[in-house]
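chain and backbone:
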Amino acid sequence: MYGSEYKVFWADSIKRSKNEFDNLSKIERFEWLKNSKQKAKEIEIDTIYREELDQKLYDLTIYHKKCQIFLYYELLASETNSNGKLLYNRYLLDMCPFLNEVMLLPNHLFAQIDYDRWKIKMLEEYRIIEMERRIIPKRYNQIKERLVYSPLYKRPAIYWIPYCPSYKSPPYHNNDARIPWDEKFLDKVLVPTIMREAILCVKQAEDAIFVLKLIEDILCMRIKSVRDALIYELGDGKIFKCSLCNNLRLSNNLNYYIDNNSLTLLYNYTDVKRHLYLKHYNWYSEGCEDIYIELDIKTVRNFLKTCSNHWFWHGIYPYKLPDDLATVLANRRLIWWN
C-alpha cells in the first residue's frame, strides 16, 4: 500500500481471497465482506498514521539539521581577525547556496559533515560571491577612473571598451582580484592595452560591416525566386507569401489580408504550403503549390541583415553560405567573440 488512497495487492493474494470467497455460503460471504472491509479500513487508518509519523520524524530531522547548521553559521560569522574585526559579511554568507543545500543531504551523509568540512565548502562559495559582488566591481571602478585620462579615450573607440578582452578579463596580480592595481600599472600597461584593443575593434567592425553588406548585396542579386531561396537553404526563413492572398488583397483595395487573426502575409516554406492546403483547398493540387508561393524580396534583405548581425556578434552564420562567400567570412576572427 502506498499512501491512504492507493492500494497494491499481490496477484496470489487476490487469487487466495477469491478461492476463499467462492467456498463460502451466501450468509458467510456477507460476513466475510464485512470483515474484509473492516480490515481494509484498519490498514488505511494505520497507513495514514504512519505517514503522519514519518512526516513528524522528517520535520524533527530537518529541525535538528537547522539547529546544527545555525550553530556552525554563528561560529563562522563570529570569527574575527587580530584587531577584533569580523572576517565575513553575513549578507554574503546568506547568499552561499551550500547553506541550504546541506539540509537536503541524506542523514548518513549529513552525519559526516563536521564544522571544518562545512566551513571549507562555505568559504569556497563565499570567496566566489565576494569576488562577484564586491571585489571585481572595485577593480572595474579602478579601470574606469583611469580610462578617462587616456588620450585615446574618444569616440568611437569608447563604445567598444566593454567588448575588449583585457577589459572583460583583466590581468589580476597573482590571479587575485583582491589585490588592487597601482596607478603606474594602470596608466602604462592596462589602460593602453584596453584602448588599443578598442581601436582594433573599431577597425574590425568597419571591415566586417563592409564585407557583410557586400555579401548581402550578392545574395540579393542571386536570390530572385522561391527556387533560388530553397537552393540557398532559406526555407526556414519567414520570407514567403501566398500569391492568392496577395491578389485578393489587391483586388479588394485592402492594405492587408486577415488570415487566422494575423495581419502578416509572411511564412516559412513549410507553413506557406500548409496555408495553401488549409485556406485555398479549392485551388490547391499536389505538386502545384509553388505556383501560388511568392518570395518577398524586401523581407529577404531584412532577413539577410539579421543573419549578418548574428555572425557579427557571435561568429556563426545561421544559414549555409555558398563556398565562395563562406571563405570570405572564414578568414575573419573578430576580437569580441568569446
